[in-house]
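Recall that a protein's primary structure is simply its ordered list of amino acids. Everything else, from secondary elements to tertiary packing, is in principle encoded there. The following example makes that idea concrete.
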Amino acid sequence: MKVAVEGCAHGELEKIYETIQSIENEEGFKVDLLLCCGDFQATRNLDDLQTMAVPQKYLDMCTFYKYYSGELVAPILTIFIGGNHEASNHLQELPYGGWVAPNIYYLGYAGVVNVNGIRIAGLSGIYKGHDYLRGRFEFAPYSDVTRTSVYHVRQLEVFRLKQISGETDIFMSHDWPRGIYNYGNKSQLARFKPHFRDEMDRGQLGSRPCEDLLKMLKPKYWFAAHLHCKFAAVVPHDEVDDNSAEADPINCDARNLKQNEIGEDKEEKITKFLALDKCLPKRRFLQLLDLETPQFAEGEIRMEYDLEWLTVLYLTNHLTNVKSSKYYLPGPQNAASTERYNFTPTADEMEHVRNKFAADLLVPKNFTRTVEPYNPDEDNNGHTPQPKAQINPQSQQFCDALGIDDPVSLALIIGGHELNYSNALNESTDTEFNDSTTSMQTEHSSLNMSGSTGDALSPRQISPFKRKNSMGLNLPKPIAETEVETVATELEVMKNNDELEVGNSSGEETEKELPLGVEVINEIDEEQNVLNAKPPIKKFKRRNQSVYMNEDKEEEE
């Protein structure tokens, strides 16, 4: 199977596909799969453009909108991860992956899929230490701070990727793994990018989480972008890294077992690393590979969910955190704790998840347009505000089938915001996608199988909290007006407990804290809506009203 790898796309899809087509015509073969390593810029319209954290001069619609609108259709199955130049509101709608256009698939914050038997894993975003331990608290419209932090890698995705076992054929990241330059032509890289020299000398160039994943997963290929240059390296894994074993004892036994197997077979396990440039003339932004796969017939491409990855998502759902405060994941450091910290699935756990999908792991082609695409013929000179966060039907269907929670839904609810569900607009021009989408809308979800909770409910009736029974979100029955004050007090206590329990999966006790940039809801109004009754309003005469007013003004300043 012929695979094309692209560095930073920067929205130039049309040029990338034209380049591949010219190679196909010249060489006389067909490329079967395109992998893009971030900065994809899946901007559907001008609203999406406002969520990108880039200088004003780089705010360009480029050509992705043509594939979203149906004006053009991607000629090759395209799989991509996110970088730091992204329409973050669009990608946040698909935290576990999904179609952004017919034949163009996003892997999510992190993801693993199988294409004709080739196992492809990926991690979106870039690493920044000050946000790594936080939850996924951001949602559109973003502040200046959250517009940047939203694409920073978080510990939960890395933790989940560390649970997968077995062979990983391809790993995609936007960042380079830290220290990867030591396995290639470092001097040549320093001549080409002189400003890298100091970071390399200090051992700070690249991502620490990616370095850990490289040592643990040992994929056959690792593709990256971000630094806008082509760089190749070969990383041997024939020796146990004692430092990494001490730093991450969770999978130490599995790592030692693999090393023993390598010693017995006398085969050196290596990772071929390749970073590519951005899509510009005279830049080295594209690479072609010829990969062997036993499940490949010419012209046939089959993409499936990875069962082990699905099971890891299912087993770690309770670790989902949407608070802006830092928290810690379970680990072996607390010997007294009985909390599970190794989530590499057992055969029984994977079989349980397989049954949720009725043993059919084929990724459904359920793309639908949920916003109006950009129209270059319209007057687009006016001020365009940021859009509000939306809940994508693809994410609803996936979460309901697997029995997990959508992070954006949780963040919106905790922040006191109403969930904004996307509506399908005109159907896709791709008949294959169109038929699949229509079927899903009719049956609620082609993913929902026997054993899935909420089969009888429509997507909008299913709360993201439905699996958190301990949170006590069931509303009381209507009561007499005389009991309003008592119930209001109980609701206030219940509300405070819920907020502590949702965002505190690590067991830390923190004060009630809302994500940055969200509005505080009026608790009294909320209680009145719940009880459908108007409690008597007591008016207090404040003797020192002017003093209190002065204090309020000082606090606001």
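Confidence is low (pLDDT under 50) at residues 242-265, 434-557. The CA atoms of residues 428 and 434 lie 5 Å apart.
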